Amino acid sequence: MPSFDPAAVRADFPILSREIGGKPLVYLDNGATTQKPRRVIEALSRFFSHENANIHRGVHYLSREATDAYDAARALLKDRLRVAASHELVFVRGTTEAINLVTHGLAMRLREGDEIVLTIMEHHANFVPWQVLAQKTGAVLRFAGLRDNGELDLEEWKSFFNSRTRVAAFTHVSNVLGTINPVAEMTAFARGQGALVLVDGAQALPHGPVDLAAIDADFYVFSGHKVYAPDGVGVLVGRREWLDQMPPYQTGGDMIERVSVAGTTYRHSPERFEAGTPNISGAIGLAEAFRYLDGIDWEAANAHEHALLAHATEELTKIEGIRVCGSAPGKASVLAYHYASAHPHDVGTILDTEGVAIRVGHHCAQPLMDYLNVPATARASFAFYNNHDDVEAFIRAMRKVERFFG
Description:
It contains 14 helices and 17 strands. The protein is of the alpha/beta class. The longest helix has 21 residues.
């Protein structure tokens, strides 16, 4: 049965026992990448030590074994995410490649004057590809704003839809504000208006299971490295009717049906979009991460994360000049803040001397920074393996910043 013991979970992550500059590592940069549990590391080691070979077409034992493991990874993810069929799940390098793959595939379908609805809270990965697509096709981008607490202004967002709206793309969870968008409601509305829907789930999967059947988007994308799995692997889930209409994103080996000097025909999804040798070990590691997460009691884990967020927010806001960005109800455990007395880079540098790892800068969300009227922020992002000692170390380090700059 799933359970949650914060101390036991923490012990599953070898890197958390490190010291930085003679001080215990306090890792609060989970929004950028999560650490990997021992069993994922061991799965990768086992593959490279005992099973390593290229997949598909190989008749020797190792190739068959690697192929079976790769295919089993896809099947496991299909089941965990409640995807209708395995051929609707494509392995990619990550969220960024997945969105670029989709925008590349839609380039032939959009016309001048068509409209794409985004939100101002999008990560650059779900912003720039649509911007490039609009420049190529003459489509128009619309950006929905926020309420004062960092929630999406849903009424404004809905008001943007009209007969020219072709696409709606939005994040499931904001990587800066922590806002959790009502993606099932948004998807139902957008699809009801005749728009295709893409949901960026990169920040959602680290905080618990996601039911893609319930969301019912046309495309849902995420990255492995943010969900306790290796980097360089991610997932694009797409409806078969869309995937089979889209041209290949890359061409080469394994995605072809027949090649001759007269021309080439292509396979259907997912092979159509997995040209060349894929990240075999990454897919295996991603599946192992999902197996690990099966053992987590997510109700208890989420309560633990929210308690850490509340503790950190309460103590941080006692420092004069701190502005927290985003206070939406039920937000994910992301704490972005601006300190009036110091640049975020100075904040991050001083925290690093105390062994505290946070993220500073624009967080690949410069339009949101402009909207919030801040040049950049510092961001502490919590995972279920963090604890209240981490929060206390973070606050002590921020008090050190205050002594320098306050």
